[in-house]
Amino acid sequence: MRTVRQVAKAAGTSVRTLHHYDAIGLLKPGHVGTNGYRYYGREELLRLQQILFFRELGLPLAEIAAVLDDPAFDPLAALHEHRAALEGRIGHYRTLIRTIDRTIASLEKDEDMNDNDYYAGIAPETRDRWQREAEEFWGEDAVAAAQAKARTFSKDQVAAIQAEMEAIRADFQRLFREGVDPASDAVQAVTDRHYRWVSHSWSPDAAAFKGLGRHYVENPEFRGTYDDAELPGCPEFIAEAMAVYADRSL
Amino acid sequence: MRTVRQVAKAAGTSVRTLHHYDAIGLLKPGHVGTNGYRYYGREELLRLQQILFFRELGLPLAEIAAVLDDPAFDPLAALHEHRAALEGRIGHYRTLIRTIDRTIASLEKDEDMNDNDYYAGIAPETRDRWQREAEEFWGEDAVAAAQAKARTFSKDQVAAIQAEMEAIRADFQRLFREGVDPASDAVQAVTDRHYRWVSHSWSPDAAAFKGLGRHYVENPEFRGTYDDAELPGCPEFIAEAMAVYADRSL
DNA sequence: TATCGGGGATGACGCAGCGTGAGGGTCAAG
DNA sequence: CTTGACCCTCACGCTGCGTCATCCCCGATA
Predict the structure, then answer these.
(1) Which bases of chain D are under 7 A from a protein CB atom?
(2) Which residues, at least 6 apart from B27, have a Cβ–Cβ distance to it below 8 Å?
(3) I need a surface site. Which of A2, A39, A148, A188 has the fewest CB within 10 A?
């Protein structure tokens, strides 16, 4: 017989949540003292675990109640249904993302086509430092050539290129989160897309591509782009994938 | 100078929404008559369009107000940020889906391991028809062998296999939506995963793999799985990718 | 001009899932 | 008995409107 606070702490939730679940009838205490205190037993704790689990999956509380209370309810079917709903939401967000990309493209169309377009949303001083570092790293001529080539792209093309880079980054991060081997086919496929992306303005050989990977690891700006504060080690992951790619294909 | 209803109809929203936007100061009418009537002009209509656009992207109204009212606000940065947030939610849903898949697997562990596990969530009669069709298509022996092989998998393995198929399907659909060439490396990489998935119970040669692709196109059940009502042509896309793969690699 | 139908306006509750006080009993220890 | 540490019950807040309920207003017709 545990009190609200003990149960809340044990289950990693809040007292208020227990009050709420009691109020909506989702989880009632096993006993209520004459003083009105709520006391929970083993059985209630188990039920709470299940509730919290389903909640983590994103099921609304009403459905959780249905799943747990209706003995005829098929939890498998509920999970499959919920899974489908999640897939649907993912699709929806994908659509939104594509619309956003197009919007970004059209917004940029309103501005003059200059070097800044290629670094939209990036502070000028940061951009300049990147450029200086890039020049030190690969030599002035290569960078100048890249910029000259970039200037020949239309605004739509630039938008598409930026969108592609965003997609590549998202894929890298996803695969990294999933713990996939950098040498695996899936990661190497993304790395291939990345190589072709780089090729928009540059055709690195194996050594240069590996160098770019190291640059992602060593340069704080690039780290920030990929690392995202939540994915420590992601730049190293990408660099490793690039190294493997360079050895195999370049 | 249009009234609420006219504006609402023109913009495809509701009168209540206009009231709400007025109440929170997001969109105020250009003029308010002495009788309290709200009248909107061209300028307000334009602003409403922008509001509705950003809203469709999923931005909270408070942020929309910030974007539209703060002249120093960078809409590009806001869009990029929102895009990242959407990516994050997609990742979150992906995690949920994987957890659901594992849960489904463990739920099934409580049941007897029989053929049904391999077709969890699919109506028995549908499953039986699939089996008959499969037997006609590839011959009874091949199907029986596949089922015998399937029965040797542990429940966890079955769950993993199902999860992998879901992932493959999602990737195919995504690439199809993105309009990628079926012969491209990205699509072929997924097709390779698909081939290895099929190999769990079967090792088709080039002709058989192409036949499987055609089956996806011609069989209504399989169409439903991939087509999703929103992606007409997706089965053909997959079949084409499989044909290319078969010619190149099998 | 009285009337009627189609708007228009202003509250205000509802929904999901609690967070966050406010205001006030209760319990165990010193 | 006092003191903290807990417990309880309201009840508002947040998001973005949908949905009444109640009442006012305008143009057209009889």
Answers:
(1) 6-9, 11, 15-19, 24-26
(2) B18, B21, B44, B47, B48, B51
(3) A148
Point out the residues of chain A with pLDDT beneath 50. Answer: 111-159
User: Is any atom of nucleic acid chain D found less than 7 Å from the CB of residue A37?
Assistant: yes
pLDDT band per the 50, 70, 90 thresholds, residue B139: very low
> How wide is the angle at C-alpha B141 spanned by C-alphas B140 and B142, nearest 5°?
95
- Of the residues A67, A97, A234, A245, the best mutation for testing chain B's interface (the one with the most B CB atoms within 10 Å of its CB) is A97
Q: Picking from B51-55, B93-97, B174-178, which range would have the lowest pLDDT averaged per residue?
A: B93-97
- How many other β-carbons are positioned within 10 Å of the β-carbon of residue A48? 21
Whether residue B220 is predicted with pLDDT greater than 60 in this model: the reply is: no
B15 touches strand C (CB under 7 A): yes
In angstroms, how far is C27 C1' from A49 CA? 29
Q: What is the pLDDT of residues A54-89, one digit of tens each?
A: 787 778 899 889 888 877 767 677 777 777 777 777
Distance from CA of B135 to the nearest CA of A (A): 28
CB pairs under 8 A between A and B: 97
Sort strands B31-32 and A31-32 into parallel, antiparallel or unpaired. Answer: unpaired
Q: Give the CATH number of domain B4-69.
A: 1.10.1660.10
pLDDT of B21 higher than 90 = yes
CATH 1.10.10.10 fits A114-249, yes or no: no
Encoded tokens for B68:
């539209």
The whole-number Å distance from A6's CA to D1's C1' is: 28
ipTM of the complex: 0.44
Predicted confidence (pLDDT) at residue B130 exceeds the cutoff of 50: no
A79 to B230: CB separation less than 8 angstroms, yes or no? no
Q: Does A186 touch chain B (CB under 8 A)?
A: yes
**3-state SS, residue B204:** coil
What are the b/e assignments for B1-34, b being 16+ CB within 10 Å?
ebebeebbeebebeeebbeebbeeebbebeeeee
Which of B77, B83, B186 has the CB atom closest to A189's CB atom?
Answer: B186
A44 at interface of B, judged by CB pairs closer than 8 A: no
Q: Domain-by-domain residue ranges, chain A?
A: 4-69, 74-110, 114-249
Asked if residue B127 has pLDDT above 70, the reply is: no
